[in-house]
Write a structure and sequence with these properties.
Four Helix Bundle (Hemerythrin (Met), subunit A); DNA-binding; 73% helix; 224 residues; mainly alpha; 3 strands; 2 domains; homodimer; 3-stranded antiparallel β-sheet
Amino acid sequence: MTFKATALRRDSLQQQIYDHLRSDIMTGAFKPGETLSSRSLAAELGVSAMPVREALTRLTTEGALELTTSRTLRLRLLTPEDLDEITAIRTDLEGRAAKRAAEQMTAESLARISKLNDDLTPAASSGNADRYLKANATYHAEIYKISGWPLLLSMIERLWLIVGPSIRTCVPDRDHMATSQGFHDAVMAALTKGDAEAVRTAIIDDIQTAAKDIRAFLASGQDH
Amino acid sequence: MTFKATALRRDSLQQQIYDHLRSDIMTGAFKPGETLSSRSLAAELGVSAMPVREALTRLTTEGALELTTSRTLRLRLLTPEDLDEITAIRTDLEGRAAKRAAEQMTAESLARISKLNDDLTPAASSGNADRYLKANATYHAEIYKISGWPLLLSMIERLWLIVGPSIRTCVPDRDHMATSQGFHDAVMAALTKGDAEAVRTAIIDDIQTAAKDIRAFLASGQDH
DNA sequence: ATCGTTGATCTGTGATCGCAGATTGCAGTG
DNA sequence: CACTGCAATCTGCGATCACAGATCAACGAT
């Protein structure tokens, strides 16, 4: 938890805390089923429980956390059915965002994406899961941002928020990173060629193979 | 505002308030640009400002409300670009939900939908906008619920939350209700025939013609 | 030694208070 | 009459306290 409570208030405290937790969850800083409490988080961050609880409430309504019967918050556990649903929605939304991004792509945007992809390749071969996950998240997010549709991006990020923890427990597999990187290269090739439909299918392939790996992991029951 | 604070706490107070406001916004109880404040709402509901502000915060992060520079909350105003984005996402998500609902349809479900459609027809011809909007919202929601995918439904409802107020200002047009009802009849016909793809296209047609009407209204600038 | 009970301590949730900006309206001055 | 300026009042936001339910550990009885 690397949080600076002393930072100037560009946003409200709860907004900063929300953004911080959201980013951490998306990149897999927490394990599925892990419990969080507003008071302990607040003490850790050096603030009162007030802004923390509002941030946690928001994450709960978005489906990232769930409230147990014993009134304790924990990271949501995915069922195979949940994963199927999320994967289907992801193919729709991320497919559309990727295609539109390809259509709106400029030389500057393409250069930025290319650089992120260059960061991603060594991260994948290094086998460092944390580094790879963060690079992967920013890579995808940057593409979707280029679509110019902020609501679409926020809805996609909500889905990442839910699958993030499960991705983290599955991705230490070096094979996963390698095959995923193959799809990313396909995305780059299609982007430079300006083939929007190819970009879309490459992104969808990436999503679906990732879902396949996660599903295998869920079936093994290792996260319970 | 018909809210019973004395109700038994099936859920937390903030959850009840959130659900209540959400439903009101979706069915157009508030006008675009209308301002809301936590204290006045709290006084109106007979509770403290605490649960109300958490509900309003949630609605803000979902894009239904926006925080002005003068620290006041108001219902989001849609730009034509916003509408294009939302409409595109709606066709993806509601199209998928409708198709899947058609595939999962049972005799009981079909009867329930058919009854809701029967409620909808007289509401459309009556010209009563409030009645029509509520019947329309429950009709669509009931179909999407049958898909068996709760996350998909909640994401769709988030979109309704954003377009809801604008639909309310546009729908008093009797022609709109009539043409929309035509699509609903097409949905029913396709559902009874078991043609999932036809259900999907009928829903998409409904969404896109509604968007066309809203766009015309936005262009007239009547909501500013 | 084992089982049952009880109290301390977690949890989320609601109420209340105070603070800092921003708006509004009324008063005073030119 | 027009304009300026100050004060009352609104806003969201954070801190703090209180309360009910649930967990858990320690203690006492059998």
